[in-house]
Amino acid sequence: MKEFFCGAVVPDCTARFTGESEEAILAQVARHAHDDHGMEHVPDSVVDEVRAQIHDVE
Ligand SMILES: [Zn+2]
Hints:
Elements: E1 2-5, E2 16-19, H1 22-37, H2 44-53, E3 55-56
Bound molecules: zinc ion.
């Protein structure tokens, strides 16, 4: 399983996401960015940052 903490990209955000693949996490992050950070669209540069911070967990 993979894991991502939004706080790795957005300081002070405590949201945590887990999924079976990067794509599964990115889908959750896109929804979270829209709902909680008011981002209409997640720029490619941010997607790259998110991908870089996704790591494997047991
Ligand atoms: Zn967040």
